[in-house]
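ok posting inputs for the zinc ion job
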Amino acid sequence: MIDCHTHLQPHGQQPPMTRERIEQYVAVARGRGLTQIAFTEHLFRFREAFDLLYGWWDADPDPALAHLARQYWEDHVSGSVAEYVRTIEAAKRDGLPVLLGLEMDWIPGHAGALARFLAPYDWDIVLGSVHYIGAFGFDDEQFAAEWDRRETAAVWADYGALVRDLAESGLVDALAHPDLPKVFGHRPRDETPLHDAILSGAAVHGTAVELNSNGLRKCGEIYPALPLLERARRLGLPITLASDAHTPERVGEHFDRLAGWARSAGYEEAVAFIGRRRQPYALPG
Ligand SMILES: [Zn+2]
Ligand SMILES: [Zn+2]
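and the output
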């Protein structure tokens, strides 16, 4: 199996993205029987993205939310994407089983800037994520009070529309943690409208749906819910497996459960991406 979603830096910390740190992730991956891992650092870690996208949060009419989002981005910038790419590519050249990836936030109205950010590099995999509705960072505890001001179903609907646009943009290979709004347990009675939005977007370019074991840690359930996965299977959409590890110990965590979740939805294979082309492999089982 291949872990298609990992980060070299935990939130709130900025350990240098060194060869030594990469090797720690690889050692854990090997110990868990994985054959490869993709590093998919957050877009907002990179100075180049900060400069290109600065001020996106001001599109939100609520200055308090915009302020929090700006602060989050300012706190997280930790280096240059050019340097990150060089470090991962050097590890690849030396034979380490690693892939060059990115977790790209969808910033509505800025698809051109995002494409310009991606263009210079030979990515293996680009994940698409929605962490913000306007400037509401709904999966971050700093924004918890905003959940109380909104209807859960409305948040899910807003999120779904953004994921659909993201998938339709064609900029990404896989949709990360597809039903992320369940992270703090806010779940509407009917989750079908979100599944409809995600699937209709993913179907446009055949974007992969990510199975992410971080959901087990955050809310007791894998991302995404099984009904979404079953429908993705019927549409023939590929899946990727992901830990969303931000530390070495979590690489490949609960992949047995991800494989079981995938199999119970009818999947027999998952994919990784190398040079942005799908590489299918059989699920254990
Ligand atoms: Zn994410
Ligand atoms: Zn992530």
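notes: The two ends are 12 Å apart (CA to CA). Residues 2-282 form a domain with the TIM Barrel fold (CATH 3.20.20.140).
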